[in-house]
Amino acid sequence: MNRPAIKVALTAIAVMIVLQLVGGVLFLASGSYNIAADEPHLKPTRWLLQAGRTRAVEFRSRGMYVPNLRDPSLVKHGLRLYRKNCQPCHGGPGAANEQIGRGIDPKPPPLVIASNKWNDSELFWIISHGLKLSGMPGFAPRLSETDRWGIVAFLHRVVLLSPTDYKQLTTAEDLGVEDSSLPWISSNDYGFAQLKAQGNANRGRELIQTYGCTTCHTVAGLGAAAVGPPLTRFAERQYVAGSLVNVPSNAVAWITNPQQFKPKTAMPNLNVPPAEALDMIAYLYTSGSSERLTALERSSGIPKAKSTAKVNK
Questions:
Q1: CA 159 to CA 84: how far, in whole Å?
Q2: Cα–Cα distance between 93 and 157 in angstroms, integer?
């Protein structure tokens, strides 16, 4: 390319940049972009803000020392702080957020789900410094470092609590008593080890058809029905039957005997053996993102599970 052509190209690029800047200034000056907190951002704006936020948090939280988050006293301390500082906007298992958290955009996400997207140091940084353009405040000015790590520690526990469990813990705290029936740190692996060792997703696909599950439920890759709730994106669902945390052990227990949890449920007891129910769950967990399950494994303190057998489509 000769010099005159290069000069023309550079001039054209410079003119385009100037026009874009002028256009942006005029757009902002017009006041036509709605900045109301009760109206969501445009999709491109939301994507840009979220991408920048994620990268900024990752960059600024690197190399941070993480204490022992499985210390029962730290988790218990975190519950008190969570209820006071986090629950009003984010809610909790079975506990709705308060009025203060309902007029913010972006809406404060349930931390049961949001905490799955960040590692421990990232959560600590967000709790400490907050996030611009989100309504999330920084708590470093009024909470100690131990307090903030306590909230992070409790976030690992809260993702494994059902609404009944959470109510039990908060009631005990209000009464000033210790409820030993629900430990602050659980040694239960929630069936993840058995799932990765024995769960067979291909076999589960066949069993779902054999037991006629698609007669009532929409199942990814198998068929659609409208009698019972859809089982699509099952790996992303936090609760089974509206009350059980969606982990392998609970999901298997529900399939094998749903009436033990909900005596009046329309879900029939098909006398499915636990081993076959595990295979069925292995297949259902192939539907949807695995991020939630990976985070739950991390929160239960066991090594990250490898994927179950590939499904033959």
A1: 18
A2: 11
> Do 235 and 168 fall within a single domain?
no
pTM beyond 0.85: no
CA distance 228 to 216: 5
Residue 308, SS3? coil
Q: Is 153 left (phi over 0), alpha (psi -120 to 50) or beta?
A: alpha
State yes or no: cis peptide before 106, omega within 30 of 0: yes
- pLDDT tens, residue by residue, 8-23: 777 888 888 888 888 7
CA dist 35 to 100, 106, 224, Å? Answer: 18, 11, 41
pLDDT in tens, 262-275: 998 989 999 999 99
Give one DSSP letter per residue of 87-123, joined into a string. HHHH-BTTB---GGGSS-SSPPPPHHHHGGGS-HHHH
Q: Which of 140, 175, 210 is the last residue of a domain?
A: 175
Cα angle 100, 31, 105 (rounded to 5 degrees) comes to: 20
Query: For residue range 17-45, what is the model confidence (pLDDT) as tens digits?
Result: 888 888 778 776 777 766 666 666 677 76
pLDDT at 295: 81
Domain identity same for 118 and 224: no
Separation between Cα atoms, residue 108 and residue 235, nearest integer Å: 22
CA 232, 154, 185, 293: dihedral to nearest 10 degrees?
Answer: 20
List 244's β-bridge partners, or say none: 240
CA atoms within 13 A of residue 110's CA, in its CB half-sphere = 12
Q: Of 102, 151, 161, 163, which is closest to residue 127 (Cα–Cα)?
A: 151
Positive or negative, the Cα torsion across 262, 267, 270, 273?
negative
Range of the domain at 268: 192-299
